[in-house]
Design brief:
heterodimer; A: about 260 residues; two-stranded antiparallel ribbon; 9 strands; globular; B: about 475 residues; alpha+beta; six-stranded mixed β-sheet; five-stranded mixed β-sheet
Chain lengths: ~260, ~475
């Protein structure tokens, strides 16, 4: 998190991590698609020479406390008093999945406030998922961050493919583990918003506990995620969105019972 | 990007500056092309008001106004106000001029932040038909007909046209900014990745170097230990051999046949042991680099002659023919005769050992100019004289060495298969000593197949150069 009092801005960094081809970029593209145009900037894709590798994608979501989105042609639109609250920017990144880009992964991970781990649901990918998670842990360690202190949600992507780990199995795993687990089929946009808000909720709960961000931007703590959802043009109820979580703990502060 | 000499992490939320993302000269060209296309002057300002590009040409009207002192003052005030006008949240602002002309000030936002603005104008609004009083009242010398005719010469623009031009310019700038930002991030990322990889490699190198140093130290300790132990073992062994010799000679009284045989065995085994210890000592000296190698001019024929003398008895006993085959006119070597003898005795001894009765062991010597043709092609005329070598081939007609084993035979204690130890004896140290001795003479050794059967050891040794002065 970066706090810029002079510019009245808070920046939160969320990183989508996972093995190559697990659908991190697809998640970001879908999120970009599913959120309101005025709430985000262009999706930036930095590619390396060897095609398949995405450096990172950036998705700034900007809003202000008490702000409301400007509708096209809305002449009565008045901006909020700039002395009130602060603007919050959420930057969403993906890391390059290819093993080769270890250094870049670490760079992108640097300063992350939360991590969405995108796993491939196919049974054949089980080992790649585990290896990538260990890589995440090792890279965090290299950055002097304990994996325990990092808000992490796990998404089992590609639920629409055959030969995948079953829902029952995922549920059992999710309820035993501490990270919130979501299911997704990112190509069709399914589960993408759920994972994102699960991560935002978890990350916010940690930042709130550490920095009382709600007070700084001038809203009630429990309001943050619903306000963010509204600003991003999400019509659904946030509690319903978060309820799709299969298990784990969505609040970073409370230890799992 | 904030100017940082050594960014160590990706600045995810750097405040971008317009002047850093665009190329000023190219921006001027863009503004000029807008001016040419629409007749409306364009100025681009950074967030702090620095003028980055200006396509404005003075209208005749403005030139006329500026001939009057009051006109100059009013014009300066307007231009000053336009330059600091802030389009605020709305993003656009229309600023009138006393002359009836207009300016439109448009914000340049990027990544939801204000990074600059551009000014369109002055242009003539579509609804103005005459010089306004604010212009005429400025100075009594201003002639209304002149003012009107000059005013009408200024390009006329409808509000929606200006808005379209503004939107178009904004889109063009946005593309430039996005591309610039993307390139900036890419290069930043590449640079940081390279630096991070370099850091990683440097760390790894340091660890490898450390491990290597430790291993070298251990290796040195091992060699020292071996040298000391070998030396300490030799001393009592010499006594054992000496006393058993004296016993055999009957100095301590006559021995019966059985006793003589036993003492003979003690002596024989003692000498085997001494030989082994000597080999170990040689080995450790070679490894620690403390083996002294003399360099003197010598003829290979002489060395091989002595080798033959030494080996003939064992060859005859085994029923193996020993042959030496030297090409005429061989050049001299600069080498240690003692060590060379050791090399060729060892190779010959091995060859005899593995050659069945009736076979032949041959030493074949020829002068070569570096066998590696790919290398000699380059600068051959210059390099071949300093590269000439003597090649000594030791051929046998024995069991041969399988291709996969040919490199390993030079490893200490290596034997092609452990059963051969029992059948042929030996410690497995001989060839590794040979290799190190050859290498200490700047030579090479390799194994090839001796067609149709047997093995061939090829030793190459550098020839003594003519200018190398010595006692010979």
């Amino acid at each position: 998190m970066q706090l810029n009092f002079a510019g009245r801005e808070i920046t939160i960094k969320l990183v989508y991590y996972g093995p190559a081809l697990s659908g991190k970029t697809t998640n970001l593209k879908a999120l970009h698609e599913l959120t309101a145009d005025e709430s985000h900037g262009r999706l930036m894709t930095l590619e390396t020479r060897d095609d398949r590798t995405l450096f990172f994608d950036m998705l700034p979501l900007v809003f202000r406390a008490g702000d409301r989105p400007r509708q096209p042609g809305d002449r009565s639109y008045t901006p909020v008093d700039p002395t009130m609250g602060m603007s919050l920017r959420i930057k969403v990144f993906t890391v390059p999945g290819q093993v080769l880009h270890g250094a870049t992964r670490r760079l992108v991970l640097q300063g992350a406030d939360g991590v969405a781990f995108v796993a491939d649901s196919q049974l054949t990918e089980t080992e790649h998922n585990a290896a990538s998670f260990l890589d995440l842990r090792a890279n965090l360690k290299e950055l002097n961050v304990s994996v325990k202190d990092m808000p992490i949600v796990i998404q089992f992507n590609k639920r629409d493919l055959p030969q995948i780990r079953s829902d029952e199995e995922l549920k059992t795993l999710a309820q035993q583990g501490r990270e919130p687990v979501f299911r997704a089929a990112a190509l069709s946009g399914e589960g993408v918003v759920e994972t994102f808000f699960g991560l935002l909720n978890l990350t916010w709960s940690k930042l709130e506990a550490e920095h009382q961000l709600s007070r700084i931007i001038g809203i009630q703590p429990h309001e943050f995620v619903p306000v963010a959802a509204r600003k991003m043009g999400i019509k659904r109820d946030v509690s319903a969105i978060l309820a799709s979580c299969l298990g784990g703990n969505l609040d970073f502060r409370e230890p799992k019972p | 990007m904030t100017p940082q000499a050594e960014p160590t992490s990706l600045d995810i939320d750097a405040t971008l500056r317009l002047e850093e993302l665009i190329d000023r000269e190219a921006l001027v060209e863009l503004c000029d092309s807008f001016f040419t296309l629409f007749g409306i002057p364009v100025r681009v300002l950074s967030k702090d008001g620095t003028l980055l590009a200006d396509s404005a040409r003075e209208h005749e009207l403005c030139g006329y106004i500026n001939t009057f002192a009051s006109g100059r003052a009013a014009c300066g005030a307007t231009v000053g106000a336009v330059k600091i006008a802030d389009p605020d949240e709305a993003g656009e602002l229309v600023h009138p001029c006393f002359s009836g002309l207009q300016y439109r000030i448009v914000a340049i936002d990027y990544d939801a932040r204000r990074i600059g603005r551009f000014i369109l104008g002055p242009y003539l609004p579509a609804d103005v038909t005459d010089a306004p009083s604010s212009l005429l009242e400025l100075d009594p010398r201003i002639e209304p007909p002149t003012a009107k005719s000059l005013l009408m010469k200024v390009p006329r623009a409808r509000p929606d046209t200006v808005q379209r031009v503004a939107r178009h310019l904004k889109a063009a700038l946005d593309l430039i900014l996005f591309s610039g930002h993307k390139t900036l991030l890419t290069s930043q990322m590449h640079l940081l990745s390279v630096r991070e990889s370099f850091r990683e490699l440097t760390e790894k190198n340091a660890r490898v170097q450390e491990a290597y140093d430790r291993l070298r130290e251990l290796d040195r300790l091992k060699s020292n230990f071996l040298a000391t132990v070998s030396h300490e073992l030799r001393t009592p062994l010499t006594s054992i051999i000496g006393y058993s010799e004296m016993l055999a000679e009957g100095i301590a009284g006559p021995l019966n046949d059985e006793q003589k045989e036993f003492v003979g065995t003690i002596r024989e085994k003692g000498e085997q042991l001494l030989h082994l210890i000597q080999s170990l000592l040689d080995m450790s000296k070679l490894e620690s680099g403390t083996m002294s190698v003399r360099r003197e001019r010598l003829r290979i024929e002489d060395v091989l002659g002595e080798v033959q003398k030494t080996l003939t008895p064992s060859a005859r006993k085994k029923g193996v023919t020993l042959r030496i085959d030297c090409a005429p006119g061989l050049p001299d070597l600069r080498a240690d005769p003692e060590r060379l003898r050791q090399v060729f005795i060892n190779l010959g001894d091995n060859a005899i050992k593995f050659t069945p009765s009736g076979g032949t062991v041959t030493y074949r010597v020829a002068s070569v100019t570096q066998g590696d043709s790919a290398q000699t092609d380059v600068g051959f005329a210059l390099l071949s004289p300093v590269r000439s070598h003597l090649e000594v081939r030791v051929l046998d007609t024995g069991i041969g060495i399988p291709p996969a084993e040919r490199e390993k035979v030079f490893d200490p204690f290596y034997q092609v298969d452990s059963s051969s130890t029992r059948e042929y004896g030996g410690t497995g140290l001989g060839l590794s000593i040979v290799k190190r001795l050859v290498e200490s003479h700047d030579g090479t050794i390799r194994v090839e197949e001796n067609v149709p059967r047997g093995a061939m050891f090829v030793v190459t040794l550098p020839v003594a150069r003519a200018e190398a002065g010595d006692a010979h």
